[in-house]
């Protein structure tokens, strides 16, 4: 592994390269905070894929791509005389020190849960009017629900255990099935999803990761089913559901 000095030199070189690109490359010169935004989201999702697959070489590559975007935003900030990379890092350092008084102060904690509770209380001291003020509006719905539940847990708004959380799932399912108005049924379905996410979280399961793994599993099995159909000179569009189910079960065994 590289020494601390080597890491600092590598980061300094990246900053120098960013300066060169911003000055000399037509594409890099043209970019703005807004034109980079959707590209950044794409890079983060690619990193997410690599993390789910635990592909360390791909993670290294995608981390580099995300880091490039962070450096790019800091460079644009410096051009606007608003902030530079040192300001970004110093602000982060100060926040981390403030939010870890059990490391940099005299606060005592028993476990991870106490750390999380202190974290949310300290955020309120920083001027946040609500424990939910830090939840991004642009966060995907499932991740947002998970973060909302984690944050309110930090102030004690939480079911006692997973069993109690599952009772809420049953309650919401019953309300969903009882509703006949489509608009209200949609609202009830949202409540079902929210309660399921809560149950998963309390049970120690990340629902977003669980669903993404199921998505990938389904894609893999369906593509195997398509290959089986081609080998048998069959077309899925010409098959009925029962015939496709037989292929599906065969694909599951591969």
Automatic annotation (TrEMBL):
GO biological process, one term: dGTP catabolic process
Gene3D superfamilies xrefs: MazG-like (1.10.287.1080)
Keyword Hydrolase: yes
Signal peptide per UniProt: none
Pfam families named in the record: MazG
Residue ranges of domain NTP pyrophosphohydrolase MazG-like in the record: 31-103, 171-221
Keyword field: Hydrolase
GO terms for MF: nucleoside triphosphate diphosphatase activity
InterPro entries: MazG-like_dom (IPR004518), NTP-PPase_MazG-like_C (IPR048011), NTP-PPase_MazG-like_N (IPR048015), NTP_PyrPHydrolase_MazG (IPR011551)
UniProt keyword annotation of Amino-acid biosynthesis present: no
Alphabetical list of NCBIfam families matching this protein: mazG, PRK09562.1
Protein name per UniProt: Nucleoside triphosphate pyrophosphohydrolase
Species assigned in the record: Chryseobacterium lacus
């Amino acid at each position: 592994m590289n020494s601390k000095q080597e890491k600092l030199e590598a980061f300094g070189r990246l900053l120098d390269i960013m300066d060169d690109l911003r000055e000399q490359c037509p594409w890099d010169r043209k970019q703005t905070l807004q034109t980079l935004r959707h590209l950044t989201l794409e890079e983060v999702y690619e990193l997410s894929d690599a993390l789910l697959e635990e592909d360390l070489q791909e993670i290294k590559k995608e981390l580099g791509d995300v880091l490039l975007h962070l450096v790019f935003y800091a460079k644009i900030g410096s051009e606007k005389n608003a902030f530079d990379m040192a300001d970004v890092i110093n602000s982060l350092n100060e926040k981390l020190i403030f939010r870890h008084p059990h490391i940099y102060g005299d606060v005592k904690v028993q476990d991870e849960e106490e750390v999380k509770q202190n974290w949310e209380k300290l955020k309120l001291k920083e001027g946040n009017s609500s424990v939910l003020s830090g939840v991004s509006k642009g966060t995907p719905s499932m991740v947002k629900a998970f973060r909302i539940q984690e944050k309110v847990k930090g102030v004690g708004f939480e079911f006692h255990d997973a069993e109690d959380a599952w009772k809420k799932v049953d309650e919401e399912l019953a309300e969903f099935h009882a509703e006949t108005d489509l608009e209200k049924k949609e609202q009830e379905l949202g409540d079902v999803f929210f309660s399921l996410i809560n149950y998963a979280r309390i049970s120690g399961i990340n629902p977003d990761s669980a669903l993404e793994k199921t998505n990938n599993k389904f894609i893999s099995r369906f593509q195997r089913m398509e290959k089986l159909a081609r080998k048998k000179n069959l077309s899925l569009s010409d098959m009925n559901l029962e015939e496709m189910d037989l292929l599906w079960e065969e694909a599951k065994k591969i």
